[in-house]
Fold:
Amino acid sequence: MKIDRTKLQREIDLLWILTRKEIILQYKRTSLGIFWSLLNPLLLAFVFYIAFNIILGVHIPNFPLFILSALFPWTWFSTSVSASTVSLISNKSLIKKFPFPKHYLLIASVLSQGIHFVFSLPIIIILVYVYGKHVDIIWLTGIPILLIIQFMITIGLSLAVSVINVYFMDFQFIVGFLLQVLFWITPIVYKFDNIPEIYRTLFLYLNPLASLMSSWRELFMSNKIYWNWIGIALLGSISILFLGLAIFRRLSKRIDEVV
Amino acid sequence: MNHFVIDLEHIWKKYPAKKDRPGFKEFMVNFYKLIYKKRNHVNSDFYAIRDLTLKIKKGECIGIIGQNGAGKSTLLSIILGTILPSKGRVTVLGRVTPLLELGAGFHQDLTGRENIILNGILLGMTKLDVLRKMDTIIRFSELEEFIDLPVRTYSSGMYLRLAFSVAIHTDPKILIVDEVLSVGDERFQKKSKEVILKLIKGGITTVFVSHNLKDIEEICNRALWLRHGQVIAEGEPRMVTERYKKEMNKIG
Structure:
């Protein structure tokens, strides 16, 4: 089959404009604009510092770098998933009026949140040097791989969550709660090694975010890639992506009857 | 190969009787059925389109008439592709440009210019095409002074003018029109009507919904009368509108 260049160009442009729209709309009427997306995890990190270091007296070395190296990627994941719950409903005027692939809305939403994550990388780099570490060439391998894995997990979940929420509006509150649960069962405020040894395998295989977030942290803090973690996360992300796509395909066909 | 640009065969469109989204209990019960398409066929389901077959050749202009709720807009949306039929086959060759619910695709917080790009791409243009035509679109809409303001500051007339202007500059091949010959003030109405007529004469395929029977008789070369989702009459516009008028008088 011949590839239609105009058609391909149009698809790219569509994704571009939908992503741009998300970014513009999110911050259009705020004065700090895009900095909110950085400020939010930074403030949260500060709260964790007070709670853990000062109140509970748990001393984790290089705490700001430690927490942010997992909190920034987590923020990308969680803001994307929670934004996706309302994505189809808030874009219903577009869905009703234009025939275009509806999953582009979700991809655009995840991409626009991902751009915020990219903006947070300079902060990580600054912190790496503040704590006397260095940025290694291995980042060039690690970052793209982890970006792709995280993108697939996030898209997969976003697709499923967005379309289920159209049929069942209570779902957005359940998602909000589940995201909190997921936050605490993923090594973000604690290290993977803190998990009692007997549970580690369980964490690793049931929660692909555990290996993903730990991989981000190991990459940023010790310039290391654990390929077994990557393998597990990749497997999980592909399964989630295909499951999400399957659910979306099935349920989005009759979407015009409910939105 | 068939030579119809729009080919609808035995189309049915069913809507579930319930309007509200299901609650938790129903959702859990229905989830399985939803996924496996095993929904119970309850008699209370509403059919917006019933066994409709419509074949349109390139360059034809079809007028659709009928009372409110006859299924006219559903039919247009099925041709457009935003609604999938429950049963039947739809073949549409080429991009469909909608002139319906003008401005529905605008985002309040984006400026006129940003909305032109968003709408233009959603209507099937590339970004480059839109940028090339930007000045023409703005000039036609007569909104030069306001184009960099968010559209939430626009009046409803300005809103419609911008939407109309984007849509007709997308190089449409198939146009579906829903009662939009009344865009903006009288002068702009005249201007927009002229543009549509020029497009139709230029050989574009048009499906046209209107309550204005005179428009249908003047513009279209075939008319279709819908009632309860079924075709009551089809053919030469004057013949169809006469029958329709007679029926309306009987009821009225």
Chain A has a mean pLDDT of 90.
